């Protein structure tokens, strides 16, 4: 008979793959380019290294990956869009499908970044969006 320890050790890599590696392939499955994420933490190290609001790094990523690319904040997928016509489609034609899409974990409760359209939810989001 096989000891229980060996069975558990055999199951551990499978569980690690299912929980930590597989969710990180969401953009790869959809064919969306972007930096390769690390298991469990995604691309958070890039944000820490480059700075979250570093515009020059954003420009370099757009040059490298294109006007639409994916980024993983932990296990939360973020889609960056810099194409004007696609942004118009998203914010005007498809806005009804995007309300309250922001996770509470990613919400920033400071000003002015807390009042950005990407951080608002509910009625606040609809009011700011309608002024655009």
Question: Could you explain the architecture of this structure?
Answer:
This protein is mostly helical and 132 residues long. It has helices spanning 4-21, 26-30, 44-50, 55-65, 84-93, 122-131; strands spanning 68-73, 76-81. The chain has a two-stranded antiparallel ribbon with strand order 1-2. It is elongated.
What is this structure, in a nutshell?
With 132 residues, the protein is mostly helical. It is built from six helices and two strands, in the order ααααββαα. The chain has helices spanning 4-21, 26-30, 44-50, 55-65, 84-93, 122-131; strands at residues 68-73, 76-81.
* Total helical elements: 6
Largest sheet: 2 strands, antiparallel
Give the strand order of the largest sheet, numbering strands 1, 2, ... along the chain. 1-2
Classify the secondary structure makeup into a structural class: mainly alpha
Report the helical percentage.
40-55%
Order of helices and strands: HHHHEEHH
- E-strand count: 2
Backbone CA Rg: 19 Å
- Proportion of β residues? 5-15%
How far apart are the first and last residues' alpha carbons, in Å?
Answer: 68 Å
Oligomer: single chain
Instruction: Point out poorly predicted stretches.
Output: none
Q: What's the overall average pLDDT, rounded?
A: 82
Assign an overall shape: elongated
